[in-house]
Amino acid sequence: MKILVPVKRVIDYNVRPRVKADGSGVDLANVKMSMNPFDEIAVEQAVRLKEAGGAEEIVVVSVGPAKAADTLRSAMAMGADRAILVQTDETVEPLAVAKILKAVFEAEQPGLVILGKQAIDDDCNQTGQMLAALTGRPQGTFASKLEIAGEEALVTREVDGGLETIALALPAIVTADLRLNEPRYASLPNIMKAKKKPIDTKAPEDFGVDVTPRLRTLKVSEPPTRAAGILVGSVDELVAKIKDMGVVA
Amino acid sequence: MKALVLAEHGGGTLKDSTLATITAATQLGEVTVLVAGQGAEASQAADAAAQVAGVGKVLLADDAAYGQMLAENVAALIVPLMDSHDALLCPATSNGKNIAPRVAALLDVMQVSDVLSIEGERTFTRPIYAGNAIATVESTEAKLVLTVRGTSFAKAEATGGSAPVESLTGAGDAGLSRFVGCEDSASDRPELTSAGVVVSGGRALKDAETFAAIITPLADRLHAAIGASRAAVDAGYIGNDHQVGQTGKIVAPQLYIAVGISGAIQHLAGMKDAHTIIAINKDPDAPIFQVADIGLVADIFTAVPELTSKL
Ligand SMILES: Cc1cc2nc3c(=O)[nH]c(=O)nc-3n(C[C@H](O)[C@H](O)[C@H](O)COP(=O)(O)OP(=O)(O)OC[C@H]3O[C@@H](n4cnc5c(N)ncnc54)[C@H](O)[C@@H]3O)c2cc1C
Ligand SMILES: Nc1ncnc2c1ncn2[C@@H]1O[C@H](COP(=O)(O)O)[C@@H](O)[C@H]1O
């Protein structure tokens, strides 16, 4: 089985994003960028499946600027075999990403696609579900456990009420939640090896996908800030404050 | 505009997130509520939806294929309904987030996720970068597909309406997926996302026993729901459905008490809209104090039991 893993280059999760003064977006100049944390988890899961003998090849794909090649190299250093960079400087919305991924899916014929559940920049949480819709395949979103059992993928999902397990006919689309695994750090020899692994560079037009945004961002603003609070010196003072709020019967 | 709301229901009643989504839908136009499910619980939920103020019509799809809200089946049910509706609104819950994008892609439209406010017929605000920025976006799509953040809209009145309930037959089981089982963490506590008071614990709580020993009595005293940081959930102190944050649940209670939580941006994303935030942490430099209205620098193992006993 082949596994396809889409990975996105995003602001590093440790960086506190700053809104640009002109309200046009978030300032990404000279900001540390990394692989979307959920995508690292997706790559890790694919590598574990391969190590366990459940997969032969892992293909990673990223839609983004030339620099997204770094993200693909990181994924290959973790154990992915080869990469496809769909290069564009435009901001590509989840629907268009899903259309590009559909074309890659059809060309590569993977048994499984593992995506992150959401990108931490746009926080859309859409691409995996959209890819599943466009390919007509089942989806297992927010996975905290994934097993291949014969012709099915068994996916345990983190849902509002707790955990839910579903069985999906293969090929299936799975999106990774935080507790699926803990991604490994790439070793130095593997980072060196990844430099020699192939990256096939394409453009959205090669897949016949129009990436013109369907949503127009009118402005980006700071969220309302909270007024400065106070420190109390003792539990007794805190008790008095809470009693004043009228929340204790 | 004709708006279709996908109801989230359980045990024959509508979830609060559905009532909030109905409020958002009434800001767009005429509201139809779709109740998909199976058996008596679904028809009871449909009857409940018919009573909600502002609802014009209820569609009930009662079929085993919709009993577990499998996305493949429910999306296929919704798509043909969009011929006669201009907008689909789903609560931004794990269920809504699962289904809405599948519908959007089948309609070839881009979804607007996690709508915080409706600024105009096609203009919405939504959080990006873990809520560190708010984007105002305008949709150019023929059909709107939105997920709605429940804490950002008031709940529609559960009574006052008298909408007709129409039965609907969908395509049934797509044969792509199968429900295997679930571990529901049933509890008689208030629901986390709509509770008036939330007491949350972090990594400092050490283990599941200590978490329960410190957090539960305080939550009991305040009739509060229990939340947790990702670190506390990852370490197994409490179930995943208690996680508050960018990737967990979004809460906006009257009072949020953060116990032994540092205040990472991913955690703040889920609770900084609380009316009052209290933080108890031994580190005076913990970032949680920057958003807290009332802070107490103290060891939680002595301060929290003392607080509980004195309240
Ligand atoms: C993609 C991504 C998504 C994430 N999503 C979420 C999310 O949805 N929700 C979430 O919560 N996190 C999320 N995180 C994790 C987040 O970055 C933090 O790691 C996490 O919130 C830390 O949890 P914590 O505050 O409990 O632990 P820590 O950061 O370890 O903080 C523990 C705190 O307890 C205090 N403490 C220790 N002992 C005591 C004591 N005896 N008395 C008083 N205080 C004490 C310490 O001073 C410290 O401030 C996410 C991370 C990533 C990368
Ligand atoms: N530009 C992209 N390139 C590759 N994968 C992407 C891209 N955008 C989104 N994805 C994948 O889709 C997931 C969900 O993203 P989103 O729907 O934007 O929240 C991510 O975790 C990635 O796995």
UniProtKB/TrEMBL annotation, chain A:
Family per record: Belongs to the ETF beta-subunit/FixA family.
Ranges where the Electron transfer flavoprotein alpha/beta-subunit N-terminal domain occurs: 23-211
Protein name, per record: Electron transfer flavoprotein subunit beta
Transport in keyword set: yes
Keywords for this protein: Electron transport, Transport
SMART domains attached to this UniProt entry: ETF (SM00893)
GO biological process, one term: carboxylic acid catabolic process
The protein's required cofactors: AMP
Superkingdom of the organism of origin: Bacteria
UniProt-listed PANTHER family: ELECTRON TRANSFER FLAVOPROTEIN BETA-SUBUNIT, ELECTRON TRANSFER FLAVOPROTEIN SUBUNIT BETA
SUPFAM superfamilies associated with the record: Adenine nucleotide alpha hydrolases-like
Subunit-level organization: Heterodimer of an alpha and a beta subunit.
Biological role: The electron transfer flavoprotein serves as a specific electron acceptor for other dehydrogenases. It transfers the electrons to the main respiratory chain via ETF-ubiquinone oxidoreductase (ETF dehydrogenase).
PROSITE patterns: ETF_BETA
InterPro entries listed in its UniProt record: ET-Flavoprotein_bsu_CS (IPR000049), ETF_a/b_N (IPR014730), ETF_b (IPR012255), ETF_beta_N (IPR033948), Rossmann-like_a/b/a_fold (IPR014729)
Gene Ontology MF terms in the entry: electron transfer activity
TrEMBL record, chain B:
Co-factor binding details: Binds 1 FAD per dimer.
Domain Electron transfer flavoprotein alpha/beta-subunit N-terminal residues, every copy: 3-183
Similarity section: Belongs to the ETF alpha-subunit/FixB family.
Protein name as it appears in the record: Electron transfer flavoprotein subunit alpha
Cofactors (names): FAD
PROSITE patterns reported in the protein's UniProt record: ETF_ALPHA
Recorded GO MF terms: electron transfer activity; flavin adenine dinucleotide binding
